[in-house]
Write a structure and sequence with these properties.
The structure is a homotetramer.
Chain A (H helix, E strand, L loop, with lengths): L3 H5 L2 H18 L6 H8 L3 H7 L3 H25 L6 H18 L1 H11 L4 H27 L9 H21 L4 H17 L5
Chain A binds a DNA duplex through helix 4.
Chain lengths: 203, 203, 203, 203
DNA sequence: AATGAATGAGGATTCATTCAT
DNA sequence: GATGAATGAATCCTCATTCAT
């Protein structure tokens, strides 16, 4: 929710500011960034920043939302095929699509992690909302799978959704940021899925 | 690692400072707390703070370590019986012991969450260490289970350990902080365990 | 003294701006109002403000003058009858006419009070001028009364004028703003007049 | 109500700051003074100001209260003799004592005027309290006079008190600030008293 | 060892005014 | 004439740390 003034800016300037914001937040992390940092990196006057955004938080939310919309473009093709197939069969594809996005926008992934791990009150509140939405969407798909008999009736779908969500959020993203190779990451996901699909109990 | 000066203080003052630190960090969150806040809440002179601790970070780590030692007292009895029993059978007991601890020290649980979700560079670094230690310990126990044939050989123990760790860290702690009733939380854990033990696939 | 551009505006827009100015100055007080506040409340472009007025001060003086002209409309009928009657007999009517005006334009009364109690250098200078004018007019009428023998020769007319002026400015206006009932206010004026007419000394 | 830190300062520094505050507030007027101005004139570091006072308002109230205590020292002798004499007979002495004080502390009189004429919300609120106290005290003395038969029973004492208060506050102080000679001012007071004592009506 | 005053750089935000469109 | 983006100085206040007592 940048201010109208920002949205009326010519595209090139908007992009410059957008990129500057990503750079500076990626570099120093949300709390460590000052408005002084921002205006320096974006090369805009101090006063202009407040014409474009409410405050630092507003600017941060702007790039996060922008990033999320971007990511959906990568996930869309996978999600579109979901009606024909079991969600759990596609899960690894979703992860791969996410990795493809990450490769194109590595800084944004870092930002996302920072957001995930943010102690700022305001940030966490917003995060919880994002989180619940994502888990709701996952639950929806998984419920379909259960109805179709792909998932045992005894399985609590919401718990399963949370499990899948956190696997992706924490472990996969973290591995990516640590610079692990893509196939290593895929192997990790496979290991998780092996457990979730088959359970750990000796038959 | 508070300074020697602090450790030489008489117990009553140490406790006052310890409680003050918990209160103020709980109240405002790590990054928002200033040294000015600390000395006011702990009712110590400004200069004394720097005689007791290196800086804010040092003080925060002090209460976290202290808290962790406290927690181990609650977990000890459960862990002691582990040699005779399968770890996975005891997992729910571990959670219960954790909840008992939480009930006695609710503010510390809040702090722990803040720590878990901290974007401060220094904090995350330390956190990763804590995290890896915990996962290592879990892995050890789970490996034993696998050797004894309680867990399928195909299961990747480290992935399993991470799964169990995150379930506890995020979902259980969060439910606790949200004020959910103890048996509701236990039910949640059961739902997770049901999935992990039996898998989700229809037989 | 708004700029010509403002006076050429169509009446409806002039009124909108006039009302907006009253609202915003009444709301926040002269010094606290910024040009940003003004353009928001008046719903005019930032640049237009400087086409209409010199600056904030100019805008404030505009509404004050405007208000004063308005007020004269209420006082006119009373003043017109003054030639036939003793001024002091009409004083209470003047106060009543003032209250009638206040009831129609309560915000302007608030503004007037703010003006009266303004520490801004520029404002006080202008105020002194207003004040002296008002006292001059009062003196004129009172001198007539004295010449006609309604007022003792020993009375210093200018002092009397100031006394009457300040009674009205401070106590009556303040009572009005505090929301006191009209007849309570009239009683106050009567009490003042009783003193001024008859003196306080026991005969 | 300066902070403890200020009151613990050694006297010479307290005085320096006190004088600096008087100078700067006198020079520019309350609203126009910035903290930057204050620290420059008082020759203290920016941070120190906030160790001594809550904010600009606090600093201003400090010098006003201080000034008021000072003034009482001048008025005390006159007030002490009041039990034996009619208050109205002493009123002129009170004014003279006030003028003596003003001659010693001319800047403080200017400040007092600024305070009297302040549109700052916070300032006016405090002012009203001061004002009511002063009027209460006056009323007390005047009531005694009335009981002793020095003042007609029909006179509303509170109205009389307000009249006397405003005469002093506005006209006398203003004349003083305008640099009028002391005997001119005394003559003015006499003119007011002549009216109030004897009334304006031709016998 | 204990204290609390000192410091000035750095934090966010607002400001009146100009000027290119 | 109308518009609203641009500007950077100026606002208040907090900060972690030091150091003289």
């Amino acid at each position: 929710m940048p201010k109208k003034t920002f949205l009326r800016l010519k595209a090139s300037k908007q992009t410059r500011v957008y990129q500057g914001l990503i750079d500076v937040f990626y570099e120093k992390g949300y709390e460590a960034v000052s408005v002084a940092d921002i205006v320096k990196v974006c090369a805009i006057p101090r006063g202009s920043f407040y014409m474009y955004f409410e405050d630092k938080f507003d600017a941060f939310m702007y790039i996060l939302s922008h990033a999320q919309k971007d990511k959906m473009i990568y996930l869309k093709p996978v999600l579109d095929r979901l009606n024909d197939r079991a969600f759990m069969d596609c899960y690894i594809d979703l992860i791969k699509a996410g990795l493809a996005y990450a490769n194109e926008h590595p800084k944004l992934v870092g930002l996302w992690m920072r957001f995930y791990r943010s102690s700022s009150h305001r940030l966490s509140q917003h995060w919880r909302v994002f989180e619940l939405q994502a888990i709701d969407v996952l639950s929806e798909y998984l419920k379909q799978d259960q109805n179709r008999g792909h998932i045992r009736d005894e399985v609590d779908i919401r718990s399963l959704a949370k499990l899948l969500y956190h696997i992706q959020s924490i472990d996969i993203l973290e591995a990516y940021i640590d610079g692990e190779a893509e196939n290593t990451i895929i192997n990790k996901v496979d290991a998780y899925l092996e457990i979730i699909l088959n359970g750990i109990k000796e038959a």
